[in-house]
Design a protein that fits this description.
Layout: H1 2-15, H2 47-59, H3 64-80
Length: 95
């Protein structure tokens, strides 16, 4: 596990070496910036949409999480007009 972690860290350090963060899209900066939860947008996906997304994941042989992450990438791409999008997620020690 330690060897795998070191290899992953080395790979991503090299891969993202020249990555320069870009503003993705306009954000609404108000006085609540320092409040807990500021900058978050909470929403609910209705049961029918959830089932359709889970079916898409099953049909594509990917996880539901992967479908949601891909949808986030598409959304950011559409709002930002960027084609190279980097989103960090925790992997909880999964290989």
């Amino acid at each position: 596990l330690e060897d795998n972690t070191a290899k992953n860290e080395s790979f991503w350090t090299r891969y993202l070496h020249n990555y320069q963060p870009k503003d993705s899209f306009d954000r609404d900066f108000d006085n609540r910036q320092n409040e807990q939860g500021a900058g978050k947008y909470l929403f609910e996906i209705n049961p029918d949409t959830t089932l359709a997304l889970k079916k898409l994941a099953f049909d594509g042989q990917v996880t539901f999480y992967t479908v949601l992450a891909a949808a986030l990438n598409v959304l950011i791409s559409k709002f930002s007009n960027h084609t190279d999008i980097c989103i960090a997620t925790a992997n909880s020690g999964r290989t």
